[in-house]
C-alpha cells in the first residue's frame, strides 16, 4: 500500500441498502438473527465433528472445514453491516475496505474449491466405494483443504494487488453495504476498463468454472447412483441432494453478481445479502437436518455436556 499517499481518499462512504428506515430496521433484525444462527450452527458442526470420533471420516472433516469457512465468510461483512445500520454516515477506512475485499474473495474462492473437493469425495464414496478409504486418506483430505485455501488466496491476491494501486482521488461513495469490487473500481480516477474486465474474468472464471465442474460431477454421480439403484441408493440420493442444494444456493447469486454486465440495479445488493447471510446459515441446516449420523453425534455431544454440567 505504498502508493496510498498518492490517493487522497482515506475512507469510503457506504450508502447501505436502502434509505427507508423501516426496511433498515427489518433488515438489521433479520441480518442479526441470521448471523447469530449461522455462527451457532456452524460452530456446532465444527465442535461435533472434532469431538465425536464416530464422525472422523473425510466427508465430515470436509464438512467441518466448510463450516469454518462459513463462520469466517459471514464474519467479514455481517458485523460491520449490522453495526452500521443505525449510523447516519456509514464509512469504512481505505484499509478496511481492501481488507474486506481481500478476505471475502479469498474465503469465497476457498469455499468454491472446497465444494469441488466435497463433490470428489462423494464421487469416490459412491462410484468407487471399495477404494474410498485409500483414495480419501487423511493426507489426501488435508491436501484438498490446503489446496482450496491456496487457490482462494491467490485468486484474491491477483485482483487486490491491481486495485489497491489505483489512484483514488476524490469520489468515495459506494452505493452498497460493503466494499464490492465492481463498484469500487468505478471510483478510481483512471480508466479501469481493462481492470474491470480482469476482475470479471478472474471472479467469473473461478465461480462459473467451479460451478460447471460441480454440475458435471453431480450429474455423473447421480447417473451412477441411478444405474445401480438398489436399497442403499436412497441415502446416497439424500446426501447428494443436500450437496447439490448448497451448490446452487451458493453459486446462483455469485454468478449473477460477477457476470452481469454492470451493477446498475439494486438487485445485486439483495443477492449479496443472500450470499453473506443466508448461505452460511443454510449449510448447517441442509447438512445436519438430513444426516442421521450428524444428528446422532449431536445428541451424544449434548448428553455429554449435560452430564458434565450435572457432575460439576
Ligand atoms: C479440516 O480438514 C482437515 C483434513 O482432513 C482435518 O484434519 C481438520 O480437522 C478439518 N478441520 C476441522 C475443523 O474439522
UniProtKB/TrEMBL annotation:
Subcellular location: Cell membrane; Membrane
PROSITE patterns (alphabetical): G_PROTEIN_RECEP_F1_1 (PS00237), G_PROTEIN_RECEP_F1_2 (PS50262)
Regions that span the bilayer: 23-47, 59-78, 141-164, 205-225, 237-258, 270-289
Keywords: Cell membrane, Disulfide bond, G-protein coupled receptor, Membrane, Olfaction, Receptor, Sensory transduction, Transducer, Transmembrane, Transmembrane helix
Lipid bilayer topology: Multi-pass membrane protein
G-protein coupled receptors family 1 profile domain residues: 41-287
InterPro entries linked to this entry: GPCR_Rhodpsn, GPCR_Rhodpsn_7TM, Olfact_rcpt, Olfactory_Receptors
GO terms of molecular function: G protein-coupled receptor activity; olfactory receptor activity
SUPFAM superfamilies associated with the record: Family A G protein-coupled receptor-like (SSF81321)
CDD domains, sorted: 7tmA_OR4-like
GO-annotated cellular components: plasma membrane
Family according to the record: Belongs to the G-protein coupled receptor 1 family.
PANTHER family recorded: OLFACTORY RECEPTOR
Physiological role: Putative odorant or sperm cell receptor.
Descriptive protein name: Olfactory receptor
UniProt source species: Lynx canadensis (Canada lynx)
Taxonomic lineage from the root: Eukaryota, Metazoa, Chordata, Craniata, Vertebrata
This protein's encoding gene: LOC115517152
Amino acid at each position: 500500500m505504498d502508493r496510498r499517499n498518492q490517493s487522497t481518499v482515506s475512507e469510503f462512504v457506504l450508502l447501505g441498502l436502502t434509505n427507508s428506515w423501516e426496511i433498515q430496521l427489518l433488515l438489521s433484525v433479520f441480518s442479526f438473527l441470521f448471523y447469530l444462527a449461522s455462527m451457532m450452527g456452524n460452530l456446532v458442526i465444527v465442535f461435533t465433528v472434532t469431538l465425536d470420533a464416530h464422525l472422523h471420516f473425510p466427508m465430515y472433516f470436509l464438512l467441518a472445514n466448510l463450516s469454518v469457512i462459513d463462520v469466517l465468510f459471514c464474519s467479514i461483512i455481517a458485523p460491520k453491516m449490522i453495526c452500521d445500520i443505525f449510523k447516519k454516515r456509514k464509512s469504512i477506512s481505505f484499509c478496511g475496505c481492501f481488507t474486506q475485499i481481500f478476505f471475502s474473495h479469498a474465503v469465497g474462492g476457498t469455499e468454491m474449491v472446497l465444494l469441488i473437493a466435497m463433490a470428489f469425495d462423494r464421487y469416490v464414496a459412491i462410484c468407487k466405494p471399495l477404494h474410498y478409504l485409500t483414495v480419501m486418506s487423511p493426507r489426501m483430505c488435508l491436501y484438498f483443504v490446503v489446496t482450496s485455501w491456496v487457490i482462494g488466496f491467490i485468486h484474491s491476491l491477483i485482483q487486490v494487488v491491481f486495485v489497491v494501486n489505483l489512484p483514488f482521488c476524490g469520489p468515495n461513495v459506494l452505493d452498497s453495504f460493503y466494499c464490492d469490487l465492481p463498484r469500487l473500481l468505478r471510483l478510481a480516477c483512471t480508466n479501469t476498463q481493462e481492470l474491470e474486465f480482469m476482475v470479471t474474468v478472474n471472479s467469473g472464471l473461478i465461480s462459473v468454472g467451479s460451478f460447471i465442474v460441480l454440475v458435471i460431477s453431480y450429474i455423473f454421480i447421480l447417473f451412477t447412483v441411478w444405474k445401480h439403484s438398489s436399497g442403499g441408493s436412497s441415502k446416497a440420493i439424500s446426501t447428494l441432494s443436500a450437496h447439490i442444494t448448497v451448490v446452487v444456493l451458493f453459486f446462483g447469486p455469485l454468478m449473477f453478481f460477477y457476470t452481469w454486465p454492470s451493477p446498475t440495479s439494486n438487485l445485486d445488493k439483495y443477492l449479496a445479502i443472500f450470499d453473506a447471510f443466508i448461505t452460511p446459515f443454510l449449510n448447517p441446516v441442509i447438512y445436519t437436518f438430513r444426516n442421521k449420523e450428524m444428528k446422532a453425534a449431536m445428541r451424544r455431544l449434548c448428553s455429554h455436556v449435560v452430564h458434565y454440567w450435572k457432575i460439576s
